[in-house]
Each structure stands twice: as C-alpha cells, then as structure tokens.
Amino acid sequence: MNKLIFLTLVTITALFSVEIPTIEAKQRAFGKSIELNAKVIQLSNAQQAIMSLVSGHIETYYIQPGQKVKAGEKIARIESIMLSKMTADYISLKKQFIALDKNYKATNALYIKGMASMQDVNLQSIQRNAMSAKISALESQLHTLGINEKNVKEASADYILYAHSSGTVSAILQPLHAVIGEDTAIISIVKSQAYYIKSYLPLAYAKEVKLGQKIVVKYGEKDIITHITQILPKLDEKTQRIVVLSSVSEQADDLFINTFVQSTLYFEADHKHVAVEKSALSFFNNEWVVFVPKEAEIGHDEHTQHTEYEDEHNEDEHDGDEEREHEEDEVPYEVRVVEIIASDDIYVGVNGLEEHEEYVNDKSYYVKSLILKSSLGEHGH
User: Fold this and answer.
1) What is the average pLDDT across 204-230?
2) 364-380 and 317-329 are packed helices; what angle lies between their axes, rounded to 10 degrees?
3) pLDDT for 29 beyond 70
4) Which of the listed CATH numbers 3.10.410.10, 2.40.30.170, 2.40.10.220, 3.40.1350.10 matches domain 33-45+194-266?
5) Do the bridges between strand 47-52 and strand 184-191 make them parallel or antiparallel, or are there none, so unpaired?
C-alpha cells in the first residue's frame, strides 16, 4: 500500500510539472449545424488527357502510372519530322528576311537620293512584310508547341511534351515507340486539388442551404474544411435528398475516390452563447465537463495563507505536516459540468460556464489524470 501511495505521489508531482494553459470563456455566434452522409468524388473534368500536338514517333517516357507530376514537368520525347520541317523553315525564313530587309533599306536610300522610284520601294516593302508575316505565323505555331523561337538555332526533330497541370498520372495511353498523329492523347492525368465532397441534405433544409457555406468532413483522423460550390437542381433518386458539392481547397492528395464519409454542414451564425474550445471538453463520470482553476488558487492572499499556516504549525507540528502533505496533493482545478448547446468546427457553446471565466483550454487530459490520481491517493490514505 505504501508503494502504491508513493507511486501516486510521484505521478501527481510529474503531472503538476506540466504547464496547463487556460483562457477566458467568451461569447461567440453559432449557427445551426446538421450531420450529413457524404462521399469523396471527382468531377468528370478532373481527368485530363495530355495530347501530342505533333505527329511523330514516341522515343521516351519520363513518367509512369501513379507518379505525381507538376505543371511544366517533362512527360515524353517525340521524334517528329513535322517539327524538323517547321524549325528548318523558320531558320530559312529568318535568313531570307534579313536579305529582304537589307534590300528594302538600300532601295529606300536610293529613293531618297532620287536614284530609285517609289514603285521600287513599295515592291521591296511588300516582299519584306510578306516574309515577316510568314515568320510570325511560324513563331505562333512554335509557341503553341511550347517552343521558344529564340532557342531555335538549327533544325530539330525532338519535341518535348510537358504536363499542362499538376496531378497524378492515371494511365499511359500509347505504348513506347508508337507512331502517333497530331492531337493524339498519350497520357491521362487526374488533376490535383480536384476533389469534391458530395453531401446529401434533407429536403427540409432547401431554403437554408447557400453557396459558400462551410462543410467540415471527417476523413480518418483529419478534419477537412470545404465550402459549397454547387447545389444540384435535381434530387438524388435513391435518397430523395438535395445533393450539394463542396470543394476541397486545402492540400489533400491522399483522398480516395468514392470513400463514404461523415460531413457537418454549418449554417450562418445567428445565436450567441458562452463558448469554449473543443479541446477543453472532457467526458468525466458520464458527463461533459471542463476544468476550471479553483477560486482559492486565483487571487488568494499569500500573507493570510502564511499566517494561518504558522499558527497551525505552532499548535501541533505533526498535524501541520499532514496538512502540508494534503495541500501538496490537492489539485488546483475543479470539475465543471457543462451542457453542450451549439458547436462549430472549433468551438462549442455551453451552459454551466460564465463569460470571462477561466477554463483549461488544452491538455485537459493531464488535469483529468491529476484528479483521478489524487482521488486514488486519498483512498490509499
């Protein structure tokens, strides 16, 4: 028994050494909330096919199915006669333009001196402008292929295909070394951040649901915050409920499509209640409670404590030792039973706590352990 008491006192001492944070209870506005059945989905436009814009022969793949890619990342290398001709034509046209530009400037100089006619100048100008238009058309085609014309120094058949958006490679649609034509889909990518939560809402709430309202989804051990982006005009035939889609805006690449989840829809806040953080709640003796510092520990006169202790010590030293041991074991927090009357994703509105009253807002499990261990120690005596 003495060993049990000793271990209890050691545990209490260790728990007392943990810093327990407290905060004031404040009034907060709460709206109505409702629990919904939901599942993780992706819209049809979340799947993107990456097309080859040139015909040619697939030489290399830089990715594989299941791999995550970022926008601008290399996908494949294609050997294209079409690209080889385009780059060769571009280089040739640039050289021809340089020659035509020199001729135009020379003819214009002669015209100024009266040695050439305006007709000659106009002819040179027309030829130069026609060549410039051809070059601009080729530059536009090269830009469409993602090629910077300034980097074209010689004819090349190598075309590098890049990812247009971030996502996960779901399939390679064309085998390596396949001969492909223009606008051929060769890779399928599921775009990142294209997840939605499909929730089923009872028809009774049709007039209360609005775009932008928050839906919090419980996914494993994680709470995912989403916001309604679509309210479908057609009821779900099986459940006869309204279907709302909420977009997942935070980073959540590890979601699995068609997973059934529990979601909570929060309506606009319209009632105020004294609120505590959810982390403060603890289930104790079959009731919801929060822990508050004892009044004796808040603003108690230290001088009075010291005087009273000395009087007791002078009367009976032995009794004083027992009193000090009791004070050391006493938990400086008390249990406050509360009634939950409202909640959102962070706070709960409660009855049983006054506004501005301090409560333990985190590590309440330490306080609960303190109280339980202290109670065990008392029974040991």
Assistant:
1) 89
2) 150
3) yes
4) 2.40.30.170
5) antiparallel
Return the DSSP state at 204.
G
- pLDDT at position 219: 86
In single-letter form, the type of residue at position 300 comes to: H
The pLDDT assigned to 301 comes to: 45
CB-based contacts of 205, cutoff 8 Å, min separation 6:
34, 242, 265
**Long-range contacts of 108-113, Cβ-Cβ distance < 8 Å, separation of 24 or more:** none
pLDDT averaged over every residue in the chain: 83
Under DSSP, the state recorded for 217 is E
Cβ atoms of 60 and 77 closer than 8 Å: yes
Domain boundaries, the chain: 2-30+271-380, 33-45+194-266, 90-150
Beta-carbon contacts of residue 121 (< 8 Å; ≥ 6 apart): 104, 107, 108, 111
Place of tokens 């404040």: 26
What pLDDT shows up at residue 327? 46
Residue corresponding to tokens 């709460």: 30
Torsion-angle region of residue 213: left (phi > 0), alpha (psi -120 to 50) or beta? beta
41-45, 203-207, 293-297: which has the highest mean pLDDT?
203-207
For domain 2-30+271-380, the CATH architecture is Beta Barrel (2.40)
Q: Render pLDDT for 138-154 as a digit per residue (tens, 0 to 9).
A: 999 898 888 888 899 99
